[in-house]
Amino acid sequence: MTSSRTEPKYTVPGLSVQDGGKLIELLRLRLHALNDLSLTLKHIHWNVVGPHFIAIHEMLDPQVDRVRAMADDTAERVSALGGVPVGTPGALVAERTWDDYDVGRADAIAHLGALDLVYTGIVESHRAALAEVGKFDPVTEDLLIEQLRSLEQFQWFVRAHLESSGGDLATAGTHTETEAARSAHEDGAR
């Protein structure tokens, strides 16, 4: 059995095996983040209630499909670099650096408040990985840029439900998904 965390024996032409290993390591957590995001989006899809149910329910399916495609592209890049992509739930839970999504059945605005924070976390961590890979691999950089374009657009879709006409976000100043859900729900109830 081959470990997913060893330096590859080969990588793509033009990169050193050491640089290939760095890319694999950076993409490992991006793969976990994308797999986690697709599951979180489906969780919200199944647990959203209230008057905005159908709009949010239907908005999330295309996001799930695109995020799953991002995960597939990321895993295939890891393989091309000579690595072993691991997409098992156990590996995701053991290696992730973030907490599990903690909002259950809730109204649409509450879920969107929490999802705004989820998207903030994944966009920030994708940008951090992008800054690293941009130093030595334009192909992986391009992959992450393309993913960020979609992730930022999806966050914009979410934030459109949370933004006042004056440009204020209902989730401003919140630090946890539970706080963001509560703040968005309270703001929406006003």
From TrEMBL:
Start and end residues of each Ferritin/DPS domain: 25-163
Compositional bias per record (Basic and acidic residues), positions renumbered to this chain: 176-190
Pfam families documented for this protein: Ferritin (PF00210)
InterPro entries tied to this protein: DPS_DNA-bd (IPR002177), Ferritin-like (IPR012347), Ferritin-like_SF (IPR009078), Ferritin_DPS_dom (IPR008331)
Chain residue ranges for the region called Disordered: 167-190
Gene3D superfamilies for this protein: 1.20.1260.10
GO MF, any single term: ferric iron binding
Family as reported in the entry's similarity comment: Belongs to the Dps family.
Name this polypeptide is given: DNA starvation/stationary phase protection protein
Organism: Streptomyces dioscori
Organismal lineage: Bacteria, Bacillati, Actinomycetota, Actinomycetes, Kitasatosporales
